[in-house]
Automatic annotation (TrEMBL):
Subcellular location(s) of the protein: Membrane; Mitochondrion membrane
Protein name: NADH-ubiquinone oxidoreductase chain 4
Organism listed in the record: Cylindrotheca closterium
EC category name: translocase
Limits of the NADH:quinone oxidoreductase/Mrp antiporter transmembrane domain: 139-418
EC number: 7.1.1.2
């Protein structure tokens, strides 16, 4: 019996998904005064799933495009509703990204959360549990339930542990924008259940909706996923949420939650409603191009460190949308790699902001300058991720963007040319921001003492740097696992 067959018999995905719940159970019974013990429990039970999914990757069959490690659970047998878990190359790396970033979020918050630490740690373990479910579940209704359930703990993280006075407004922005877009999606899921008699994803792949049904259903799913990406004009919640969220909240928001939108398009919109996807592609191209240029230009004129990076996230995720709607292997695989890259790079940039905010309690760029003289290690890390953010060759950002534009060029060269302007504008805002922070005279009237990154912060940056370089220098390690799943996706669309 080989390693992969052992996993099939043991329902490995189900067991991994329960690990954060065990951590939550233990945290509930720990005395709130034992803060160090709570942190140790949380970081260990949040990191075990990451190592488990690395083990799963070792048993993953790269030559198979269908779902692997599949297990079924009875949910409501009377209504023919069962919960099916399974992964393919598309979902595998989103799971690894999720379970990698959650322990990092806890490490980021090691010294910065002063009130209700237990509730904070439990919220992140709940987020991890729901995210594992979202990327594993093969049922449209259960996907929707988990997709929306993430809003609750994230709402609490922003609203309770946010850093400024507008945190409640930001949490309501986040909750309402993303929830309202998803309400019509629930109505569509109920319609699908009425037509097909089940919400099982693999059965739905074999069912052909009429062209009119596809257009209506696609558009309702689009409203839900576009708000998560986010696409212009439903992006307004993101800068507010990022600015008010604690550093760890911004990391998980940029690193994983934005990927729920792109994952939803790849997993559901393209294969379930292929004709509608082709029909609405010009709309997506137009909105994406507007989003890229608008977010890039808006980032240039911002004065808040976090708000600048928030708008860069909007621009990068709209580039990902161009890759998804190229409808070919190169573009879609590039979109997946760029999503992973953005998870590492954007997360690191928000940690970089958090480092100086914890020291000086301000995010206004005008108060900084000349930090290269007193924080050389910090500036070196900042420079590396600035280069990765603008797609410098050798970093993960270059590979993802190159594949996206190569794929979209096959479909529409004009879209590619306009989309590539985002790379030029990206260089403008990223390098200008770095120049203002790193160089010039040290503004000693605002910053009295300067401390370079400490040991804890160093060990947060090391894995982010390593994965950014590995993805940029050896992309085939990831592409070989993704390729067959993307092939299978395209076959479902065209045949």
């Amino acid at each position: 019996m080989n390693l992969a067959s052992l996993f099939y018999y043991q329902d490995i995905l189900l067991y991994i998904s329960f690990i954060p719940l065990i951590g939550i159970f233990l945290l509930v019974f720990i005395n709130p005064e034992q803060q160090k013990l709570m942190k140790i429990v949380a970081i260990n039970f949040s990191s075990i799933p990451f190592h488990s999914f690395l083990f799963v990757w070792g048993g993953f069959k790269k030559s198979v495009g269908t779902f692997q490690f599949v297990s079924k659970l009875l949910w409501i047998p009377v209504l023919n509703l069962n919960v099916t878990l399974g992964i393919d190359g598309i979902s595998l790396f989103f799971l690894l990204l999720t379970t990698f970033l959650i322990p990092l979020c806890i490490l980021i918050s090691w010294n910065s959360i002063g009130s209700n630490l237990k509730g904070y740690l439990i919220s992140f373990l709940i987020i991890e549990y729901f995210l594992i479910g979202v990327f594993c579940v093969l049922d449209v209704l259960m996907f929707y339930i988990l997709f929306e359930s993430i809003l609750i703990p994230m709402f609490l993280v922003i609203g309770i542990w946010g850093s400024r006075e507008r945190k409640m407004l930001a949490s309501y922005y986040f909750f309402l924008y993303t929830l309202l877009g998803s309400v019509v999606m629930l109505l569509s899921i109920l319609y699908i259940y009425g037509q097909v008699g089940t919400t099982d994803y693999e059965i739905l792949l074999t069912f052909m909706f009429s062209d009119f049904e596809q257009k209506i259903l696609w558009f309702t799913f689009f409203l839900a996923f576009a708000a998560k990406v986010p696409m212009v004009p439903v992006h307004l919640w993101l800068p507010e949420a990022h600015v008010e969220a604690p550093t760890a909240g911004s990391v998980i928001l940029a690193g994983v939650l934005l990927k729920l939108g792109t994952y939803g398009f790849i997993r559901f919109s393209l294969p379930l409603f292929p004709q509608a996807s082709f029909y609405f592609a010009p709309l997506v191209y137009t909105m994406s191009l507007i989003g890229i240029v608008y977010a890039s230009l808006t980032a240039i004129r911002q004065t808040d460190f976090k708000r600048i990076i928030a708008y860069t996230s909007v621009a990068h995720m709209n580039v990902v949308m161009l890759g998804i709607f190229s409808f070919n292997n190169v573009g879609i695989e590039g979109a997946l790699l760029q999503s992973l890259s953005h998870g590492f790079v954007a997360s690191a940039l928000f940690v970089i902001i958090g480092v100086v905010y914890e020291r000086y309690r301000t995010r206004l760029v005008k108060y900084y300058g000349g930090l290269v003289h007193t924080m050389p290690l910090y500036i070196s890390v900042f420079l590396f991720f600035t280069m990765a953010n603008i797609g410098f060759p050798g970093t993960s950002g270059f590979i993802g963007e190159f594949l996206i534009f190569a794929g979209s060029f096959k479909v529409n060269s004009s879209v590619t040319v306009f989309g590539a302007t985002g790379m030029i504008l990206g260089g403008c805002y990223a390098l200008w921001l770095f120049n203002r922070i790193a160089y010039g005279n040290l503004k000693s009237q605002y910053i009295k003492e300067t401390l370079d990154i400490n040991k804890r912060e160093f060990f947060i940056f090391v894995p982010l740097i390593c994965y950014t370089l590995i993805l940029g220098l050896t992309p085939d390690a990831y592409l070989s696992s993704i390729h067959m799943s993307v092939n299978n996706l395209i076959e479902n669309m065209y045949f």
